[in-house]
Amino acid sequence: MDGKTMETHYRELTEKEICRGLFRQFIRRQIVVECWRRENEKWVIRDDPFIDDWSESDYEFLVTCLKNTIATGGFVYGFFCNGILKGFTSVEKALFGTAEKYLDLTSLHVSQDMRGKGIGKILFHEAGRWAKEHGAEKLYISAHSAVETQAFYKAMGCVEAKEYNQQHVEAEPYDCQLECQL
């Protein structure tokens, strides 16, 4: 930011306000150097440098997904700085797993220019609070395998999922499948 006072707040988002324009100043960019990989039934860190960023079609898909989350009874919660969305999380409404104890944390992102300020932690806790209020015992997270991303989730109390969601595994084979007890 430019040194001016920042007005910040968190709130639940509505389906009507979710559009491409909401993300006009959101910076997804993440420079990744090392990732966790499963090799011979063990987790190891490997060099796998790349830049993760969203294309225009990725943003369009995100808008569709978040609108669907709300339309189907799920939760979308955001962090705003000076009226601009700079972080968000989403949780799907449908319980799943053999004992139907999981709710799916489908997104948690903080804009590159706002990372390291505790915003992700607050978003994660709000997602967990909502999930628990809606009958979940655990949050399920199919999370980016970047070392920094995994360190965040570990700090939040996440561990490797006891039960993998095969749809997530197939969609993102390099993601780490995690769970967090609520």
Question: Can you give me a brief rundown of this structure?
Answer:
This protein is an alpha+beta fold and 182 residues long. It has helices at 56-71, 119-133, 147-155, 166-171, and strands at residues 8-12, 30-39, 42-52, 75-81, 84-91, 102-110, 138-143, 159-160, 176-181.
Question: What would the keywords be for this entry?
Answer:
9 strands; alpha+beta; 182 residues; two-stranded antiparallel sheet; 4 helices
Characterization of this structure:
By secondary structure, this protein is α+β, with helices and mostly antiparallel strands. 25% of the residues lie in helices and 35% in strands. The protein is built from four helices and nine strands; from the N terminus they run βββαβββαβαβαβ. The strands form two sheets. It has a seven-stranded mixed beta sheet. A two-stranded antiparallel ribbon has the order 2-3. Strand 4 (75-81) and strand 5 form a beta hairpin. The model has no long low-confidence stretch (mean pLDDT 96).
SSE map:
Elements: E1 8-12, E2 30-39, E3 42-52, H1 56-71, E4 75-81, E5 84-91, E6 102-110, H2 119-133, E7 138-143, H3 147-155, E8 159-160, H4 166-171, E9 176-181
Parallel strand pairs: 6-7
Antiparallel strand pairs: 1-4, 2-3, 4-5, 5-6, 7-9, 8-9
Cα-to-Cα separation, first versus last residue: 35 Å
- Averaged pLDDT: 96
Low-confidence stretches: none
If helices are DSSP runs of H or I spanning 4 or more residues, what is the number of helices?
4
Structural class: alpha+beta
Instruction: Count the beta strands.
Output: 9
The proportion of strand residues reads 35-45%
Helix content estimate: 25-40%
Taken in chain order, the helices and strands follow as: EEEHEEEHEHEHE
